[in-house]
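Hi all, posting the design record for the shared folder.

TITLE: backbone redesign
STEP: 1 of 1
STRUCTURE INPUT:
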């Protein structure tokens, strides 16, 4: 698991309350995203890109500590689609980093339900799951992670899925170091203000 957050305060972890973690997944295509940019007057910029359908999949979680309301970002990059095994592994890794109870809030996707998720919940009594209403991505602050990352990667031209994965990791690590950008994910969501 890659993380770019301040380590949680281990002292008195049981008194801190629960960590709230908003989780989502996204894909990044090798063909890339094109957005408006600058160019000389009369010369429309062109961006050649690969006609490959290679991609990387990313799962991330925005955590909020109960006591200090510190925001952290955790993520994993995969070269395959994310399914139950990857989602469960991500949650296990989160539990290694976050002390005390952890409340995970995510959408109603099929990889967030089923026997593997029930088994995971039974294995860790301090783990709790909550679900967003159907068709409500605007409520999930983790969507802001994808908006910011895809904006930063726009107009790029990686040569391979591995290079794309490296760029995604680099941008997510940069994002994880900025409390302002992470908090913006919450402020731009439709959740009630709580930070």
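Okay, here is what came back for every position:
SEQUENCE:
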């Amino acid at each position: 698991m890659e993380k770019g957050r301040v380590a949680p305060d281990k002292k008195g972890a049981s008194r801190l309350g629960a960590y709230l973690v908003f989780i989502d997944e996204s894909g990044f295509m090798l063909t890339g995203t094109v957005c408006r940019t600058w160019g000389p007057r009369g010369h429309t910029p062109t961006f050649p890109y690969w006609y490959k359908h290679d991609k990387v999949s990313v799962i991330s979680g925005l955590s909020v500590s109960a006591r200090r309301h510190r925001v952290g970002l955790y993520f994993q990059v995969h070269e395959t689609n994310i399914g139950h095994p990857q989602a469960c592994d991500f949650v296990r890794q989160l539990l290694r980093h976050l002390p005390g109870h952890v409340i995970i809030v995510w959408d109603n996707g099929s990889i967030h339900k089923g026997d593997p998720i029930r088994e995971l919940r039974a294995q860790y009594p301090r783990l709790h799951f909550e679900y967003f209403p159907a068709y409500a991505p605007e409520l999930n602050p983790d969507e802001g992670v994808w908006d910011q990352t895809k904006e930063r990667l726009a107009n790029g031209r990686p040569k391979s899925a591995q290079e794309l994965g490296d760029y995604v990791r680099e941008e997510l690590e940069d994002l994880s170091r900025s409390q302002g950008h992470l908090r913006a994910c919450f402020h731009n969501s439709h959740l009630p203000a709580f930070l």
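COMMENT: The chain has one domain: 16-32+48-187.
Let me know if anyone wants the other runs.
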